[in-house]
Amino acid sequence: MTAQTLIKLTKSSKGLDSSMDELIRQVDAFINEQIFGTATESSPINNLALQAVKYHLDVPGQKVRMRLCLSACLELNVEHDDMLIISAVSELLHNASLIHDDIQDKDEIRRGQITVWKKYGTNIAICAGDLLLSSAYSLLAGISNTKLLPIVISLVGRRTSSVIQGQADDIECKANPIQCIETYVEIAKAKSGALLGLPLELAIVLSMQNQYLEIVRKSVSAFSVAYQMADDLQDIEKDAPLNSRSKSLNVVHLLKDAGSLDPVESAIKLTEQYLVEAAQSAEMLPDSMCIHLLKMIQKIQIQVKNDNYS
Predict the structure, then answer these.
(1) Which residues contact residue 39 at a Cβ distance below 8 angstroms, ignoring those fewer than 6 apart?
(2) 192 with 169: CB under 8 angstroms?
(3) Position 45 confidence tier, pLDDT thresholds 50, 70, 90
(4) Among 117, 97, 120, which residue's Cα sits nearest to residue 107?
(5) Which long-range contacts does 182-190 make (Cβ < 8 Å, 24+ apart)?
(6) Residue 247 contacts residue 232 (beta carbons within 8 Å)
(7) Closest to 1 (Cα-Cα) out of 283, 290, 218, 215
(8) Are 310 and 93 in contact (CB under 8 A)?
(9) Domain interval for residue 270
């Protein structure tokens, strides 16, 4: 990321954050109304799947995908109600994947609290994830431009399918470790890149400014690989091989098995390369549209530069 881009990023951030906070509140309210109806905070929720969904959503993450979607919609002049819909869809799909991932990975903590499957059991957690997934698709019926609806539904379906296939490949690699960095990259793009790029793609499709689609896809694909590698660098010990097999697909252990003399340093360099590629593409997008993507790139760059992975 160039110095000029950093200056532009700082200037663009001013004035956007306050309006973004209000829009996020609107999307959250929209999601709650769609899932829980007119129930108030004090209303009892008897259904366990709904309880599990509320439990999960009550402790929000950084809402990265929602922010990406809102900033792109504002830049591209997407209709307000459509903006709320696709922002909610992006967030619901992401949270559904988190609940299901935690089941498969047996993770017991998410966002500082016990995971849904650990608290409610695997069966209810599966239902909760499915409920979020189905809610996302049902919201698409409200898109104002019905001519674009088949394109939007198809896009959401393809990206959801990509995540599922990427997760399946990741699970398979735990049982049968790989030594091919190209395979690792494709899995990372499928698992992380699909739902990360979807909010931007949806905003572009609804605004009918398709000239930005390939730029977004290139930037997000590169960033998703860098993001996964940065995460792996923080989880080197956690993902250490168990009984000659990796507990998780981790780029450092993959590079070590492939013969790298300094797998940590090699992983850092690869991460930096993908971050540069992501930033170069993101800089080709309109200012407000790329601001949150550039912020994420900058955050990972600082993390990789300053963290001690020894």
Answers:
(1) 45
(2) no
(3) confident
(4) 117
(5) 184/249, 184/251, 184/254, 185/225, 187/249, 188/224, 188/225, 188/227, 188/228, 188/229, 189/221, 189/224, 189/225, 190/162, 190/163, 190/165, 190/166
(6) no
(7) 283
(8) no
(9) 3-306
- Say how many domains are in the chain: 1
Task: Give the pLDDT band of residue 18 (cuts 50, 70, 90).
Answer: low
pTM: 0.89
Contacts of the segment 135-141: beta carbons below 8 A, 24+ positions apart:
135/34, 135/35, 135/92, 136/88, 136/89, 136/92, 136/93, 136/96, 137/89, 138/34, 139/34, 139/85, 139/88, 139/89, 139/92, 140/85, 140/89
Q: Report the amino acid identity of residue 150.
A: P
Distance of CA 165 to the CA centre of its chain: 16
For residue 209, the SS3 value is coil
- In Å, how far from its chain's centre is CA 167? 13
Beta bridge partners of 245: 242
CA–CA distances in Å: residue 47 to residues 44, 60, 127, 140 = 9, 21, 11, 24
Distance of CA 142 to the CA centre of its chain: 23
Give 201-240 pLDDT, tens digit per residue.
999 999 999 999 999 999 999 999 999 999 999 888 887 8
Q: What is the CATH number of the domain that holds 134?
A: 1.10.600.10
